[in-house]
Design goal:
133 residues, Arc Repressor Mutant, subunit A, 6 helices, flat
């Protein structure tokens, strides 16, 4: 568990030439399909509302996303990618796909099979945990 936390911490801080950290990518990726409210963005990104708000504030300052007030409900704010945000997200997606392909190609057939079994077991555990809430 500690190894995962350390790797996640390093990945969150690391820039790879795409201009986005993993944390920024996680917040921006759900916006590929269009605008989302802050609450929908938080849910889609798997983060808390306050975390999403802080991240979006920083992304707005960087010119990667914009906030737009709803014309129907002044309490609602939608977030969407700017042109610069779309470009940065596309660059990060290319980096992620390349890394994933390199990793998958490095696995032996046995590792593929064992990984699939392990992921299935993890999915079952997560289903069990979420159904008990």
């Amino acid at each position: 568990m500690r190894a995962v936390q350390r790797a996640r911490g390093r990945a969150t801080q690391r820039q790879d030439g795409s201009g986005l950290s993993i944390a920024q990518f996680i917040i921006m990726a759900p916006l590929r399909g269009g605008s989302l409210t802050m609450s929908d963005l938080a849910i889609s990104a798997g983060v808390s509302g306050p975390t999403a708000t802080r991240a979006v504030t920083n992304l707005v300052r960087s010119g990667l996303v914009e906030r737009v007030a709803s014309e129907y409900d002044r309490r609602q704010v939608a977030v969407h990618l700017t042109a610069a945000g779309e470009q940065a997200l596309a660059a990060k997606q290319r980096v992620v796909r390349t890394s994933e392909a390199r990793f998958i190609a490095s696995l032996t057939p046995q590792q593929h099979q064992e990984g699939a079994v392990l992921l299935e077991r993890i999915a079952e555990l997560l289903d069990e945990i979420s159904s008990s809430w």
